[in-house]
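Late entry, written up from scratch paper. The run itself happened at the end of the previous shift, but nothing got recorded in the book at the time, so transcribing now.
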Amino acid sequence: MQSPTTITSVGELRALTENWRRNGQRIGLVPTMGALHAGHLSLVALARNRVDRVVVSIFVNPFQFAPHEDFERYPRNIEEDYTRLASAGGTDIVFAPPLGELYPHGFATRIEVAGPARGLEAEFRPHFFSGVATIVAKLLIAATPDIAVFGEKDYQQLLVVRRLALDLGLATEILSAPIVRESDGLALSSRNAYFGTNERRIAGQLNRVLGQVATEIQSGVSIAEGERSGQAALLEAGFDTVDYVAIRDAATLSQLDGPIGNMRVLAAATIGGTRLIDNMPV
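Output as recorded:
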């Protein structure tokens, strides 16, 4: 079992990817914040099937955490991450820069985003998508990959990143990978490690409720009623708070007057201080 090579500077990363490209090799990037699980490894596998070389970045980005959020306690175990990547195979390079490499002293630039970044998560985490857009842009510029792979669990983020690449004229193709779920349907997430036994049982109801809402909409229930019933079902299941259950246009996340075209139901709810998000097609 051979661990991928680790590099920590943008200069090293650029030199390496430029050499690969001169040799006619295609490059894939999988951006992560570490605490890797099977969902992340599925992104690596998808990238490996499309390109010759795969870079996995591991960087817990402070720009996407508000002061009251869990930046300090966010799971970090870089050695375990290396072990998982080595066991799964497919990763050539781990790019694990220190904070100052990506945000040097005096750093003063942030990217503001709109379009699919409006509403939903932005209403509850107004700082979030600017932080995501800034770090993703820096990683894409540093690695200049042919493709970058993002999971559908963070569906709004996926659409924001696609819009970012399009608007900035970046050559990278943004690919999506399906959600990987546990046996009861709970989407894999690094934050699942926070749960106690009872909280974990309640968390497993999120996917079930989303499926119920999707079925209701398909049977002719109105958008508004489907959203109301989903929120009520999550609270009844034991979630402490429900930020939203929303049915949106799958391509733009715009609000809908009625069930039409490709739709997505998205939800955010909190149990025991841990906030979960999930989504599924309708």
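The longest strand covers residues 241-249.
(Scratch paper discarded after transcription.)
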